[in-house]
Structures are given as structure tokens and as C-alpha cells.
Amino acid sequence: MRAIRFTLTLALLLALPVLAAAAIQTREIELKQGSTVLKGFIAWDDAFIERRPGVLVVHEWWGHNEHVRAQARRLAEAGYVGLALDLYGGGKVAAHPADAEKFMAEAVKDPAAIRARFDAALAVLKADSHVDATRVAALGYCFGGGVVLDMARAGHPDLDAVVTFHGVLATQTPARKGAIHARVLVLHGTDDPMATAADVEALRKELDAAGATYAIVTYPGAKHAFTNPKADSHGMAALSYNADADKRSWATMLGLLKDVWR
């Protein structure tokens, strides 16, 4: 009996360093699209031996800041591999709304460049040794929400799901019937002046006409940027953090991913 106990104790002690080492890991990356250098931030949980689904995260109009990187970490904590990408190039981050508006306006002038940068980051994510390249989704916030929604509208072949948090909903290129393959989840604050009730209704009609599988979830009283704890610091009445909407929308998103990849 003593020998058995000793063997079990030794086995547990040998396992301890492995257990202790399991943790959220992160890595800074750089990639190029044409002549533009793009920043990236990837996060994963090294407790998982098997490959995990990968999720791209597209930033708000502020750029590749701590908010988008935090979402990549949260995804890793939930068992996925998150990659926060940089659609502006050079990791640009705006501190003032005027700069953010300028960065976003410059980016949207060239939808082809946005798609190319998105796909460049997607290729890095799919090639990562921790990722199951057959299971990929994209999340977007504000500007980024509009980007991932447009990827779904265009019928992006690699995306199983897209989720937009307080995103831009209007478009000049609505989805054609049958074009949307990804599951679509729209998480929206009812008091968001940057995406009005009319915008929500127009999107609903568009998705219905396209035959998309989708859900639109609204949070009463939530404004634009309701997931960003620093939203109120920018002095814009349209922006406000809402802890309840942040928590509930994240849980809803995780529920969708679990259902898509069950």
C-alpha cells in the first residue's frame, strides 16, 4: 500500500510543473499587405493540446488599442485562439475622436484594401499551430463591426460566424440572396445614435431577403461603445460603457460560437 501511495504522490508531483505552466499566452506579430506593415496580437491557452477554433477581432475606430487586445485575451480564456488585427496599418491608435474619424474615413475609401488586410491576418491565424483552420469566426466592434458584417455580406468562404458589437450597420453593398454563409449575430444598444432603430430595421430586412441565419439582440439603454470601459473618457455623449450589456453580449457571443462549433 505504501508503495502505491508513493507512486501516486510522485506522479502528482511530476504533473505539477505541467499544470502550473498552463496559462494564457500572447504574442505580438507583424505582417505585410502590400507595402503596409500591419500589427497583430494573438492569444491562446496552452492548457489545450488539441487545435482550437480561431477568432479574428477587428478594432473600433480608435485602432489597434488595448480594448481589442483585451478581447483576444478573453477569447483565449474561453478556450479559443484570438487574433486582434490592425486594419489601419502600423498599429495606429487615435486618442481623439477627430483622429479616429480621420483614420476610419481613410480606411473605408478602399474596401479592397480592407479585405486584403483582413485576409492577410486571417491567413496568419489559420496557419497558427494552435488553430483548427476549419473553424474560424470574426468579431468586430464599432468600425470593426461594420467590417465583419461586410465580410459576411460578401460571402467570405472561411467564416463560420460573424459577430458585431455596437457596429456600423448601414451599407452601400447589401448582401445578395444566398450570399451569406456565416451565422450572423448583431449585438446592439437601443440608445446608440450611431446605428439607429431605422438602421437596425433596414439590416433585418436585408438579412431576411438574403436568406441569412442571424439574430439581432438589443440592450435597452445601452449606447455606442458599450463594451469599452474607457468609452466615457472621450467626451462624446454618444459613447458610454455599460457593464451589464458588456457582460450579457459577451455571454451571448460565446453561446453562438459554442452552438456553431458543437
Describe this structure in words.
The chain has helices at residues 2-21, 66-77, 97-108, 111-127, 143-153, 197-210, 243-260, and strands at residues 24-33, 36-45, 52-58, 81-85, 131-141, 161-165, 183-189, 214-219. The termini are far apart. The chain is α/β, with parallel strands linked by helices. An 8-stranded mixed β-sheet has the order 1-2-4-3-5-6-7-8, with helices on both faces.
Helix and strand layout, with pairings?
Blueprint lengths: L1 H20 L2 E10 L2 E10 L6 E7 L7 H12 L3 E5 L11 H12 L2 H17 L3 E11 L1 H11 L7 E5 L17 E7 L7 H14 L3 E6 L23 H18 L2
Outline of this structure?
The protein has 262 residues and is of the alpha/beta class. 40% of the residues lie in helices and 23% in strands.
Question: Which tags fit this structure?
Answer:
disordered N terminus, single chain, 262 residues, 40% helix, Rossmann fold, alpha/beta, 7 helices, 8-stranded mixed sheet
Kindly report the spatial arrangement of strands forming the biggest sheet.
Answer: 1-2-4-3-5-6-7-8
Helix content: 25-40%
Overall domain count: 1
Q: Count of DSSP helices?
A: 7
Mean pLDDT over the residues: 91
Total number of β-strand segments? 8
What's the CATH topology label? Rossmann fold
- N-to-C span: 43 Å
CATH class: Alpha Beta
Query: Given the C-alpha coordinates, what overall shape results?
Result: globular
Radius of gyration: 20 Å
Could you describe the largest sheet, including whether it forms a barrel? 8 strands, mixed
